[in-house]
Amino acid sequence: MDLFPYVHIGDQGPLVAFISDSVTKGCSAVLESGTGTGKTVCSIVGALEASLGSGRKTVFLTRTKSQQRQVLRELRAISSKERVFGMAVQGRSASNCPMMAEDPELAIGTSEELSRLCSEYKKEKDGVCGCSHYGNMASADLGALLEYCRDFMPDPEAFSSHCMDLGICPYEAAKLMLPQADLVTAPYSFVLMPRILRHFLDWLGAPLGEIVIIADEAHNLPEYLREVMTHEYTMGALDLCEREAGEWDDPELRDGLSVSDLTSAMGECMAEAAREYVIEDDGILPPNFLEDEMMYRLGASSLALGSMYRKLTELGAMVSDHKRSLRKLPRSYMGSLGRFLLEWTSAEDDIYVKLVTGGKNPGFLSYCLDPAPAAEPFRSCHSSIHMSGTLEPLSEYAEELGLDDAVCRRFESPYPKENLLVLRTDDVSTRFSDMHADPDNVRRIQEYLVGVVGSVHRSTAVFFPSYGMMDRFLEDGIPERLGRDIVFERRGMPHSDLMDCVERFRSSPGSVIFAVAGGRVSEGLDFPGKDLELAVLVGMPYPRPTARQEALVRYYDYRFGRGWDRAVATPTERRMRQAIGRLIRSGTDRGAAVILDGRVASAKGIASVPTSDPSGEVERFFSRG
Ligand code: SF4
After folding, report:
1. Which of 93, 97, 124 best tests ligand 1's pocket when mutated (most atoms within 8 Å of CB)?
2. DSSP structure class, residue 610
3. What is the CATH class of 228-368?
4. Domain 417-624 has CATH 1.20.1740.10
5. Nearest residue CA, atom 7 of ligand 1?
6. Model pLDDT for residues 550-562, shown as the tens digit of each residue
7. Complex confidence, ipTM
8. Pocket residues: Cβ below 6 A from ligand 1
9. Residues of the chain with CATH 3.40.50.300
């Protein structure tokens, strides 16, 4: 069966065969696939060619909605050759539900909370379903809906508005289509959050062993998987818990101790830990710090504390049930504190580090150091495909995720190498000591930046290693010296604001965008053609040397050796390669990147040319085009 819908270019034939063979053998495939290799269409074709007719289903995991749309576009192209059927599913959100969309409180609801609220809406009253959109499902022509989905493979937004026109629930309708689909594209969480995975498999109507998983942008996965198993609780949440306890007459937990006794003790522990152990951002706690302090402050044994924490979760369930019955967000802060404390006490010491975080809203953090446990679905499914344009070193990635059966391979970009110029300046760096001990270092970086940006009137991205560094350059008046239209990616910027800002940048040729390496602009967005031709990387975007980061380095050292290389250097190089990768999105794109940090000379995956005249080199490069 040949499903490939286009004329092959470059290594696309071998790429499809590599994936198809891996799926046939039932092993994991880990691949780095450069820009223009067509990894999305190749992976879909490879997985489907090895799965159609076998009863297996393919799940394509993406990080963004635009990647889901691309998966559907490729499926439509494949379908013009051989009919296949794919669906996109997205996490539950209030904005997707006609019953919840108008209530602003529900906009912050998690999918679990909204799911519980949905079951309340669906309850029947006097024989009538409380949610008309759900009630209408019984009489809807689901066969016609399935045909519509097969014929058009609509984007999630189009599917949603089609369902709204039919008066039925888009979320419930999508679930009913999934058993018929050959491929389903979903967010990472559908497979990597155990609670969601159970439901998802039910909807698919297939066991995990019959699923082929494709994970796109897999360079994000190690950190994502660590976060899945990480637990955090802050002082702000504790205040909300105390307030909630007050609204419920401060319930007793055990032996005369009430919820407010527990929250007071916890608040004191948090304040003391922040005072004693935070150095800059965070600090590692001594073994059993929280357990011992809580026993001391509450005069309770560890067994008694355990039963108090369980009681707290029971109270939380009661509160959230009550809120649900009132059709309010079924959230309980007592419940979340109880769950956090149970998770904190049961976290295995060998893969967790217990931290206190500082700042205006201090908190406790039980940080999971090992991505492998949460990667279990990749090991239990039929076959998993992990791909990214920046995944090297591949064997290290496979080892980190515990993919013992992985086959690894790199596929080069078919685009002309000479279309990309990567320069570096060796006499500057953003190393902490250089930034502070050599005042002239910063001045030289800024001179290079102003000179390079001013050397050509091309659309330019300036990638900073952190928002803090960007702020410093703003304070030093760099935007004024550049004298160009500049837009800014800001910390925590809402997605819609960021897209407005990117649109302004795209629609104004020769303008400049200030962004951070590793942020949404440098990783998730496409800038084809002249939308972006020049990138300046201000320094190496190493993670801050926090206690958490140091614990990760030590853990990787102990598990694999070369901890700093794996936990610091490799993710930093991937971030830089992602940023540089924004420049070349087609075979005719040309672009120049200037890295203002000599340390990149030793980076394994980034070939750069040293220069003391980056603006002259950039000018000459573009004058040749
Ligand atoms: S069934 Fe659908 S429309 Fe009805 S409440 Fe649940 S999510 Fe909303």
Report:
1. 97
2. E
3. mainly alpha
4. no
5. 97
6. 999 999 999 999 9
7. 0.99
8. 97-100, 118, 121-122, 131, 133-134, 169, 171-172
9. 417-624
